[in-house]
């Protein structure tokens, strides 16, 4: 199952690294989830302090080396983060070029005409394919693009499974065979030669194991699988109740000083996620935000996006949700970052009854049983179910 970045799993990942730079470079998804959940300070408490003091001029000097925001963010994450903290990203990136290609319907049709099959179009021109999905054009392409279908039997699925050493590898490399084996009830049989990927933990064994350690960090570093199992069951606090709490917290005054820099809660949460999370933990959020302007938006739009590279039972996983049209794609980007996923094949539209449409889409497919905030809004969908979901959105747009 794809990783859903909870606090405990983020912390387990962070313990592998000695500096934030190393953490960010080698585990960008976990790092992004830590930053967006507001727990970066907590999980990096053991790391060496290496932060450079960035002023506007030093940030600008670094930014001038790059021609796109993407390169700047990837190659200079510290400078980019400093630019975000100082709210100067637009200013120092004004010389950079926008690299996103604009796809019209005619241009999409022209691009699709180069291919014989939907799969070839999707792999060969992912930008055009995503635009076609976003614009509800897949039905228009049915006339001249064909679909490849492979029919699996028990024998052929077993033969395919024999090529792989783990279920994860089988699911990732041959999703349709994996899905057939699961639905035919033969998955355990065809995977019997594979390496076991997990240990069966009882609550009692987890309690007994945790009792051997004096701190969560020690427990995490020496028993990561057990800690992750406890996290999935929601019993981490219970089995770690006897342990010391090593995490340094924000003071009320330091949170208040940071909050005063922002005019809305949204800006506060987005630009200072650690301080915002600390304010929530200390139950002083209303107090430190009392000077802010309250902007209420009722959700009027529905979105769906593919969690790139994530599969459940051989099917790709999608995130469904509602947002406000004024936010554009910002809500989608924030949610994707918070979960540590990359959003692909995004479809979003303003609709008449956003919550009703969202519930109809959530009735499709299977739940990948993710944990954490928003985990119930992920669905594993077939291609036809995804097309139906896109149709519900585009046909209800206003």
What does this structure look like?
Strand 1 (301-312) and strand 2 (315-323) form a beta hairpin. The mean pLDDT is 78. The chain has helices at 7-14, 20-26, 28-36, 40-43, 56-63, 69-75, 77-85, 89-92, 105-112, 118-124, 126-134, 138-141, 154-161, 167-173, 175-183, 187-190, 203-210, 216-222, 224-233, 236-239, 252-259, 265-271, 273-281, 285-288, 330-339, 354-362, 383-395; strands at 301-312, 315-323, 343-350, 378-380. The longest helix has 13 residues, at 383-395. It has six domains: 7-92, no CATH class; 113-141, no CATH class; 154-190, no CATH class; 203-239, no CATH class; 252-288, no CATH class; 301-395. It has a four-stranded antiparallel sheet with strand order 3-1-2-4. It has 398 residues and is an alpha+beta fold. The chain is built from 27 helices and four strands.
Query: Low-confidence spans: pLDDT under 50, at least 5 residues?
Result: none
Mean pLDDT: 78
Strand order of the largest sheet: 3-1-2-4
Give the termini distance in whole angstroms: 37 Å
Which structural category do the helix and sheet elements fall into? alpha+beta
Cα-atom radius of gyration: 24 Å
Shape category:
globular
Strand content: 5-15%
Task: Report the strand count.
Answer: 4
């Amino acid at each position: 199952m794809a990783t859903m970045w909870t606090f405990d799993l983020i912390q387990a990942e962070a313990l592998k690294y000695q500096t934030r730079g190393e953490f960010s470079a080698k585990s960008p998804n976990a790092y992004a989830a830590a930053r967006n959940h507001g727990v970066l300070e907590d999980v990096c408490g053991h790391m060496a302090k290496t932060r450079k003091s960035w002023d506007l001029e030093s940030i600008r000097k670094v930014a001038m080396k790059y021609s796109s925001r993407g390169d700047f963010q990837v190659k200079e994450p510290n400078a980019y983060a400093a630019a975000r903290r100082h709210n100067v990203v637009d200013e120092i990136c004004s010389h950079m070029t926008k690299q996103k290609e604009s796809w019209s319907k005619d241009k999409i049709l022209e691009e699709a005409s180069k291919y014989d099959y939907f799969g070839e179009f999707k792999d060969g021109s992912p930008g055009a394919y995503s635009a076609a999905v976003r614009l509800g054009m897949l039905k228009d392409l049915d006339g001249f693009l064909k679909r490849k279908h492979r029919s699996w039997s028990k024998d052929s699925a077993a033969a395919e499974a024999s090529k792989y050493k783990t279920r994860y590898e089988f699911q990732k490399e041959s999703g349709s065979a994996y899905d057939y084996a699961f639905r035919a009830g033969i998955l355990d049989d065809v995977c019997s030669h594979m390496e076991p990927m997990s240990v069966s933990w009882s609550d009692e064994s987890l309690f007994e194991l945790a009792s051997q350690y004096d701190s969560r960090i020690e427990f995490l570093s020496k028993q990561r699988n057990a800690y992750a199992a406890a996290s999935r069951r929601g019993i981490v606090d219970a089995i770690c109740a006897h342990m010391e709490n090593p995490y340094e917290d924000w003071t009320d005054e330091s949170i208040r000083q940071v909050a005063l820099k922002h005019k809305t809660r949204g800006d506060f949460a987005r630009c200072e996620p650690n301080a915002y999370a600390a304010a929530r933990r200390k139950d002083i959020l209303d107090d430190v935000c009392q000077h802010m302007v309250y902007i209420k938006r009722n959700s009027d739009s529905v979105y769906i996006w593919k969690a790139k590279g994530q599969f459940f039972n051989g099917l790709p996983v999608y995130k469904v949700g509602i947002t406000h049209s004024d936010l554009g794609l910002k809500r989608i980007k924030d949610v994707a970052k918070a979960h540590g996923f990359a959003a692909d094949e995004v479809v979003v539209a303003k609709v008449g009854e956003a919550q009703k449409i969202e519930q109809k889409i959530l009735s499709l497919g299977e739940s990948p049983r993710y944990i954490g905030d928003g985990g119930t809004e992920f669905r594993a969908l077939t291609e036809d179910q995804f097309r139906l979901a896109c149709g519900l959105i585009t046909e209800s747009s206003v």
